[in-house]
Amino acid sequence: MNILIYTWIHIISIVLLVIGFSSLINAKSAKEECVAGLRKMGAIFQGIGLLGLLVSGFGMMARLNLKMAESGWVHPKLLIWLLLGVGIVALKRGWLPSKVAYAILTLLIAIAAYLGIFKPF
Ligand code: HEM
Fold this sequence. Notes:
binds protoporphyrin IX containing FE, mainly alpha, single chain
């Protein structure tokens, strides 16, 4: 597949992930009748977002001929991907206050984007 299509999927996946996270965070303080819908939407968007990021990430690596061992910046991105996955569980179980969840989400996305753009190591 064309590298630009992978990049496109990568960016869309980030947006879906953020929408998914926001839905789950908002479900905490939403009215009773909205909670189930927000949780369902959150789970779907996050699932598609996380899957899309991984598939497009590895797709870009293949197209750009990037090897795992030579691309140190990919490793923390994979860790961030895992942390975002753990974040879903944390939100569903109510472990994180909303403000903390938003702060962590923003930070993780910012770091992952930095790594993808600047490739510092
Ligand atoms: C966890 C959330 C992630 C975010 C927010 C994120 C964000 C980004 C951004 C903003 C770019 C720059 C796109 C561009 O150059 O046009 C990028 C590039 C890239 N990302 Fe990610 N990414 C994430 C996860 C991943 C994962 C899990 C992988 C690996 C499996 C990955 C592999 C790559 C690759 C290979 C590139 C292309 C670098 C290049 O153009 O040379 N990313 N990412």
